[in-house]
Amino acid sequence: MSIFQDIRTAFSRRDNALNQLLLINVLVFVAFLLFRTIIFLATQNRQGHMPVLEWLALPSVPGTLLTRPWTLLTYSFIHFDFFHILFNLLNLYWFGALVREYLGDRRLVSLYVLGALAGAALYLLAFNLLPVFRGTPAILYGASASVTAVILAAATLLPDFTFSIILLGPVRIKYIAAVLVIVSIAGVNGGNPGGEIAHIGGAILGYFFIKQLQRGRDLGRPVQAVGDWVGRLVTGRPNLRVTHRSRPVESTTKATGPRKPGQEEIDLILDKISRSGYESLSKEEKQKLFKASQQ
């Protein structure tokens, strides 16, 4: 099977959000790498790719942003440095797998998108309101805000889950998340203040996303609704209409498969995970959590 067929297969699956996010980032990175090389060979100009980058990266100037509103999202898929994309995608893979397993594909995508928007919002506020940044045009690109949102979401949901880190051994992910936030705050006065500020925006979103979810409010529903609308627009499938018909009382008591868990049950399970970790769940509780993630 060819690489192109593998990519097509990956995007044709509906339960493959993590791999799809990883692939989009890799494909964009490779496309820009080839584009930069071709431009350099043709023009001998190492900055010949900048017009395309500026068209997709997030500008700090509001007037420019109004002419490029798509950059609020497209910036979160652009990388130029190999170690930048490697670090981001490794973290997205590790922490995204946790979020996907416990909350499902749709909420993982919602976190990625909302993390990008939150990072963009804080970046724009900082560069237009804080005197230290105001008047300094800049652009923002990279998946770091989205990835940070996923990391903080995983750490908020499963604070005592451990990763084995070389030279350190088992480390709880709540400490990994805490170090990441501290490093981002400390880096605001460094060489990449815009990126660090976006990290903080993503971190805040990831934390509140889980806290609101535990209270029964899914902040990702608008993102999911827009995604469903775009999907119907692309595929041409009409909205499904469900007609409810009255049935005899006795027929409603027949078993038709496992019942869907209620929000109270899910909240109790999430609380248990927060206290004791995912490993403390029974098989039945894990099945309920997985079923809820598919709703």
From TrEMBL:
The organism's superkingdom is given as Bacteria
Molecular-function GO terms, alphabetical: serine-type endopeptidase activity
**Which residues are the signal sequence here?**
none
Query: Where does the record place it?
Result: Membrane
Its primary localisation, in coarse terms, equals membrane
Question: What Pfam families does this protein's entry cite?
Answer: DUF6576, Rhomboid
Which protein family is it in? Belongs to the peptidase S54 family.
Protein name (Swiss-Prot/TrEMBL): Rhomboid family intramembrane serine protease
Q: Report the source organism.
A: Hymenobacter lutimineralis
